[in-house]
Amino acid sequence: MSRICLIVCVALMLQVCQAYYGHYEHFPSSNPYEFAAHPWNYVYNPSARVPGHQFEGRVINRQQPSSYPLWKHSADNEVGDGEVESRLFNRLTANLLNAGFFSNRFGNNVGNGKPVQNSRPFSQINKWIPLTVNPDFPSVISKFESCTTFSEEEGICVPGAACSLFGGRPTGSCGLKSVCCINAVSRCGTTITLNNTYWQPPVTLGSSCSLTIKLDEGLLEQPKEISQIRLDFTSFSISQPNAEGNCATDVFKVIGADNVVPAICGDNAGQHMYLNVPSRGPLRSGKAVNTQPSKEITLNFEFGALSTAARMWNIQISMLPKGASFLAPPDCLQYFAAARGRISSFNWQDVETTTTRQLNNQNYNICFRTEEIERKRASEMCLSVCPVKNGGDAFSITTPTAATNPAAALANAQAAADAAAVTVAEETVTAAQDALATAQTDVTTAEEAVAAAEATLAEQEANLAAAGETLTQAQVDLATAQTALEAAGADPPAELIQAVTDAEAAVAEAQAAVDAAQAAVNPAEVAAAQEALTAAQTALVDAETAVTTAEENLALAQAAATDSANAAAAASDSASLFGAIGTVFTAAPADGVTTATCLYDYLLISGGRDATNIEADRYCGNELNPAGSAGQAVSVPVCTPIKSFRITYRTDGTEGEVVEGLNTIPAPADELNTGFCLVYQEK
Length: 683
Hints:
The chain is α+β, with helices and mostly antiparallel strands.
């Protein structure tokens, strides 16, 4: 008890020196989709973004130091001379108690390994001091004020002693004797009650790690009823989903929230969630009737043994009080309060990947506060795909493979057949060209044979002519010898008789030579060679015709193959773009089967339309385009005039094929889906 008294005395002395300073807390209208008469002031800038969340227009309650000293208050804060001392004493006492000194000293310390202290002897003391609820002298925590440090961390403004007592890290100043206290927890199985707590993993992780957020208006550090919890994933990286899109190895779940929160895994740095706190019991005689005095929301990680991922996270847990103007609509998991920004599905990243990143069993709303644009309320919101620099796919929701899409399968089969026909035609052209080459060789050989035969015939004819000349000369010589013999009379000399005999022998020999030369002359060989040449020339013409025909057939086959390849590519694109027209399902007769599109996985943009006013509600496939069925394989801006601005993202429980059944429309299997990343702009 002496220790407690000492703490009280020290805190009282510290508080005596603390000057009063005001805090300005301005937020837009309590209706997140409407405007107050004067929604903007110097504290709240409608285009301001949260540091560290480039595209997220979250309203931050930054501490604004007051220029009013202790003795200078506004008219509303004026008090009589006799009230100052009493009010100051009660305020100091209330600050000390509301700062959570005793709540944390006597609270549940199971998470940090300390003995359980169920006794909370000072938990109701603040209710015994009426001025603890006096708006003129509220304690720092009782106004639920947050602060932001130069390093963009968010904490709560408390006296330095209080920050040390509940284990926080003082970073920066909120004013005299008050510090911006950053509370970070790096344990599993612990319970927190302080606003703006950061949860980080311990050094060693087991098969699971959980943190419980305890919400109880009876706690000194929670004087206001908490309506929502906002989780900001400053960092978040666990195992990726499997090929089916299920978080089968590692998974993060929220238990106890009043809204449906999907299980997620993978990489989610920069994402956020709003968790609705279950409402309290009905009021009776001014008191809440509730058998359960507090509410608990549990954040739970489950880890698989086969994971090789480097698990890390840093989750900021913000407690948003009931009635605050910066609450998200109750049916919105994510809420953006800026005129422009970027949104993405959980686990979407700008990375080139060969695995599935789209998560199954997602079903939530992403909402946008209607902003003021050039002093007028925004009348429409436009969405377009994010620019990517690292090979990511900015829009990939339910992208069936061409192999499993009936129309694409038929087109691919035809393309394959036409490609095979091109191969056959090419082989035919090659054979015809070979035959043409042979025919050309045969013609050359025949021409050479004809030339040789003609040369032989010419030589034979020359020999015949020479033999004829020799015969003629022998006949002349014989006539001369006979004339000389006759001139010699009755008794010619023996030499004349011999000369006649020799001349006759020469004539006979010459005649024999002529007969031999005449027999050697054979024009038939030339004729045969010429016939062979004619045949070779005919074969050559036929071979040339065959080559021409084969080449023409090849050209036709190539054209058909090109057409079918283009048709297959178009069918594949159609398989990827299938359903981007935004209907519940599209009748796509392929083998007589009606195939579902944008029925199981889709992005719902009510009233979405492109620049040509083509309208669609549901979007899936590989492009954000309401005219995707027309073969426009390109994403275009899609705008909607329907307020309140919101979109809905839904995926079913499988990336596999949906088999036709009773009241079940079949759908082809998916693969390598990544989800979406969109830039929004209110106009």
